[in-house]
Amino acid sequence: xxxxxxxxxxxxxxxxxxxxxxxxxxxxxxxxxxxxxxxxxxxxxxxxxxxxxxxxxxxxxxxxxxxxxxxxxxxxxxxxxxxxxxxxxxxxxxxxxxxxxxxxxxxxxxxxxxxxxxxxxxxxxxxxxxxxxxxxxxxxxxxxxxxxxxxxxxxxxxxxxxxxxxxxxxxxxxxxxxxxxxxxxxxxxxxxxxxxxxxxxxxxxxxxxxxxxxxxxxxxxxxxxxxxxxxxxxxxxxxxxxxxxxxxxxxxxxxxxxxxxxxxxxxxxxxxxxxxxxxxxx
Length: 282
Description:
Order of helices and strands: EHHEHEEEHEEHEEHEEHEEHEH
Keywords: Hydrolase
Number of domains: 2
Structural class: alpha/beta
Protein name: HAD family hydrolase
CATH superfamily of the largest domain: HAD superfamily/HAD-like
GO molecular function, one term: magnesium ion binding
CATH topology of the largest domain: Rossmann fold
CATH architecture of the largest domain: 3-Layer(aba) Sandwich
Number of strands: 14
Helix content: 25-40%
Strand order of the largest sheet: 8-7-6-9-11-10
Largest sheet: 6 strands, mixed
Distance between the termini: 25 Å
InterPro entries: Cof (IPR000150), HAD-like_sf (IPR036412), HAD-SF_hydro_IIB (IPR006379), HAD_sf (IPR023214)
Pfam family, one: Hydrolase_3
């Protein structure tokens, strides 16, 4: 694991902080560190916006940040849906025909013995066809608003992302299979287990650009934290770009600095230095 690197601090003219969630901001138990909340109050007083950027559902992120949602942009579903104060900043709808092909592809994988399940994500709710507790309980962590249906092909309107969870290694079969099914779309290995399918040109990078334009902020006024391949496109869009020490090598290569790992509250440590304040008590 690489060591954290020095960086210029405090940050001059910092206006925007964007952070991935899993493997980046969240601690080892999947919780938001308690030290973040007082830092958000300091940022609000200084007119510095904080933005969670995640593959998680908008409803899930809204619940996690419910006490600080006023004025907070949310980058959800790996960039396919961006909202601020209840209004769309950007969104991208997948062709229903492609959704049908993916649904059938996942069904074939399951019939062949692969332990996989599909999430058909819309702006407001996620649809599942696989209804066993093992799969649903895992999905519920990322999609608070979800429902199990008999036939996913009846729910292919207003789809913003298709996500397959593979209980094995998604890179071995599921990811290449989806690349063959959707060659003209983005098929991203979001984590070692999740494969996300989105429209071409839509990712966390495009979402960051939309947020920067919406807020009137430049890359020189932006800090970004990330750890995995679904963060890759957003890392070049910030002067203060930080790969977590636990990050994928490609993220480290794309970033200007390395922060301590998520298990060491790296985002909190770096953010406090950028703001020139002490790390708050837990």
